[in-house]
Amino acid sequence: MRNTPEPLLHPVAVDELRPTQLTVGYREVEHKRAQWRERAERDGPEFLGRHMIPVVIGPKNRMHLIDHHHLARALYDEGVKHVLVSIVADLHALDKRAFRTFLDNRNWLHPFDSHGRRQRYNALPKHVAKLEDDPFRSLAGAVRRAGGFAKVDTPYSEFLWADFFRRRIDRHEVEERFDDAVVHACEIANSKDASYLPGWAGIDD
Fold first, then answer.
1. What is 135-194's CATH number, 1.10.260.40, 1.20.120.1630, 1.10.8.10, 3.40.50.300?
2. Which residue, 44, 169, 181, 194, is the most exposed by fewest CB within 10 angstroms?
């Protein structure tokens, strides 16, 4: 196992990347697609070089994403064929069961569906194109950009916020009146109820 990320200096096909979560926020994917289109012609290669995809090598030497799922999906949807990756750990010697258990224990796995329900490991998609939409994950991303909470390095922090909003905001509001839902979510993001969440930006009296 490597203790520090080792960048691969050659491109890896996006098709070869295996997700370690079930969902993304499709609005977040669209946001990243727009960012890519804005930069593709001007500094596309430099952008990819600054946004290497962290992966873990698993059984059969397959590369598993442990972050940047939204970016990987956005680049795939934009027709980008290859990305640069950084290897966080090489676990190819483990069998599938031990590998998934290891990822789960390191918080490198998020097998939860679009309703926040945990699923079996075999529900994980085998391609970024199969990632499903969780509108509350998009809501969390929009709230963070609006200043509702701070960006932190805690794994899956925005999924934690998504689940917080899921229990307090009607799904129909998020899907049909997204801008209103963002305003609503920003208000409750500053409440004491959210103080346990990473990046909370409320006032602690």
1. 1.10.8.10
2. 44
